[in-house]
Amino acid sequence: MRFARAVLNRPYKFTIILLMANIFVFTLMWQTSGIPLSLTAVLPFEVLVPFGAKLNYYILSQHQWWRFVTPMFLHVNLLHLLVNMYSLWIVGPYVEKLYGSAKFVVFWVVTGVAGVVASYLTVRPGLGGPIGGFIFKAYDTPSAGASGALFGLVGVLFVFGIKFRRELPEGFKRAFGTGLLPMILINLFIGYMLRGFIDNAAHLGGMLTGAVLALLVDYRRPGERSGVAVTWRVLQIAAIVLVAVSFLKTMQHFRDPWPAELGTKLASEPTEPENPAFVSYAKAIGEAHEAFVVATKDKNPSNIDAAVKNLDAAPALDPKADELRQKLRALLLRAKESQATAATSPSRDKNQPGPADQLDRDFLAWKKEYGQWLKTGARNYSGLDKLNEESPPN
């Protein structure tokens, strides 16, 4: 009865706060995407990545460590959000009422981060196949979702039910501990059938971490001293600060230009054999992209002539690819001319729009057009259909 009263009477305000936070972030993402709202339409990686989705490339080469934290608040489409938030509404209150809000917040953040870390560590080309493909991923692609943290809460309840099986009422024994086995096994089966789409490594990483936390963390039974250890309050605040700082870092880097080598890297990781002509084309585009950014941001046009020469020498693929190449070539020449003009003309009022502002807008429009071609027409050359798949939810 003490356990029953605890579950009925204790508050679960942080479960509601997490629900609201996830919905709020998804609303921002959807408004940014400009895509009509639907249940299954997937947000493009041009939205997922700036908002903080896990992408190994950024963590490795750009040292954007906050991408271990932010993905647990991101979702790839409305259906993904609804499924995860329904699961949080079902599971979250149990953990928060049993362990208290301080430990609940720490559990959520720690298991969520553990899930992302597991996803990060299992991008291993060559370790796929019917068995390895359940956990390992053959290519680096944006990953997002609260499922790692949700599985972490399931791991907590699983171990909790086993530890206190002699004290729990019958209804609790069916809901916790071994009573969760059917749900866990069903989810693992679904994950196996949808491997390549579902990030099973994140699920397992979160669940195992939750189980370990439940083994190590002391549990205050109902009716015992109600005070909360200062340590857990400090850890709760630290977890909240970590999330806040991670999203602050995301905001600071939200409008960073795509690194020139990223498009080439994504293009060079298909599971099918590469087309040498496409690789040469993508390399020329990447170098030209970088030359443009250096010329406009760093005011250094010295690389433009070489980039234009490489574009001219790149192999022809299809009419759209050639159109994109010619547009980028024209943008490079305009950037060079703009820098030459700026060096010889008097400085203008920064509040007045000028040619450079229009150049930046045209370049952003070109990037969007090129990204769309990468996800559609480019698939004919190197198995790039992977770029147009739904980003794996975790």
Features:
394 residues; single chain; mainly alpha
Overview of the structural elements:
It is a single chain. The protein is built from 18 helices and no strands. With 394 residues, it is mainly α. Mean pLDDT is 81; it is low at 267-274, 349-353 and 382-391. The longest helix is centred in the last third of the chain and has 26 residues, at 319-344. Helices cover 64% and strands 0% of the residues.
In short:
The chain is an all-alpha fold and 394 residues long. Helices cover 64% and strands 0% of the residues.
Q: Tell me, what's the shape?
A: elongated
Radius of gyration, in Å, reads 25 Å
Strand content: under 5%
Largest sheet: none
Q: What's the overall average pLDDT, rounded? A: 81
Helix content: 55-70%
Distance between the termini: 36 Å
Could you give the count of β-strands?
0
| Unreliable stretches | 267-274, 349-353, 382-391
Multimer state: single chain
N-to-C SSE series? HHHHHHHHHHHHHHHHHH
Question: Number of helical runs?
Answer: 18
Which secondary-structure class do the elements indicate?
mainly alpha
